[in-house]
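Write out the 3D structure for:
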Amino acid sequence: MLRMESDSGWWLIRHPDHAELAGAFAAAWGNAQFRKPEPRTRVLHGIARHDDGWAARDAHPSITRQGKPSAFSIELVGKYSAFEEIDLEEYLAVRDRAVRMIAENDPYAGLLIAMHTYNLLTAHADRSTITSEGLVLLDAFLEQQRAYKDELRARIVADSSVLAEEKTEQMILEHFRLLQACDNLSLLTCVAFHAPSHLLHPLPLNDGGAAEVEVEPLGPRHFRLAPWPFLEPELQFRFPARHVTGKFFESSAQLESAFADSPPELLTVMLSQ
């Protein structure tokens, strides 16, 4: 779950809906300067479906020790440090499922998700918030993910429907970076981030170079991107969220009931040049 604070409570966004928003950004990506992703269908599938494994967990939201909805929040942008608030074994199982449920039918899309997962849990994870027993679980999971990524790469190499240039390590790395960029832009949207940021990695240009995209907030869920990576000069996207009233909850059951009783509403994000 992702959470966005309101005057009276929280907007809660499911991981799969956040990922679909990332996929919508990726579908619009590309112009005279920025290169569109190819193989398009596989890359967009990986980006839009990279959090499908969270659907069952998000159906039953829980609370933190402070009584807030347990969710990715504005405080966690740019870091991955809330491990003391989660059951690590369950969390890693969700992460593994999110990779495998896509990779079984589309190893190309699955590899991008596996790379995303591995990056989150190595380059960005704050190991100081994980117990010694948890670190054993995490390191075993990372070793398993390394082996699975190798397996997926072998399947991609053997796939005659993927062009040779689309199988190169560099091309796959570029698509992974696009997933990370669109995922980050969706995260900034879903928590209503209000400080300058960027899309994590240099992103591929049509001339063979790469450029980092800066993100400037202009208002609630309104961002200016520079350099501009889309064709249209301004874009609007909509995504579903549910509003729960109250900043703190006595139990996870109370939060889950409030979430279930709240109908989905469509929120808007605007991107400007």
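The helical segments are 15-28, 40-48, 55-58, 88-103, 107-122, 132-157, 169-190, 252-261.
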